[in-house]
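Anyone opening a protein record will find just a pair of labelled lines. A complete record is shown below as an example.
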Amino acid sequence: MKKVAFICIHNSCRSQMAEGWAKHLFSDLFDAYSAGTEKYPAPKPKAVESMKLAGIDISYYSSKLIEDIPEVDILVTMGCGVECPIVPCSSREDWELDDPSGGTITDFNETRDLIKDLVIDLARRIEDL
């Protein structure tokens, strides 16, 4: 089973949403993790609310640092200009997503739905490997 990490700066919004979608939709296909390059207290409340509206509870997730997760096969950065230190992986990609932080719940919902589509696309590509 492949291991996939979703990386952002604070691990408080987009990367948490991606981990939530991946675990909800594809836990049988790959192990999903999320982390950040800087510690943050917890997922952003609007990220938690947005995912809950989609039927996924990420309220118990916590912000993790890259060194808190295992080595992965695929590393996905969320478009936040994050410079990942050397993280061993066989594949790396950037999703170039705008950060909805500071926006409305509608902004978070739009980002949530984009992330869902990207996670589904990633899963299709993993199945084709």
Summary: The radius of gyration is 13 Å. The beta strands are 2-8, 30-36, 74-77, 91-94.
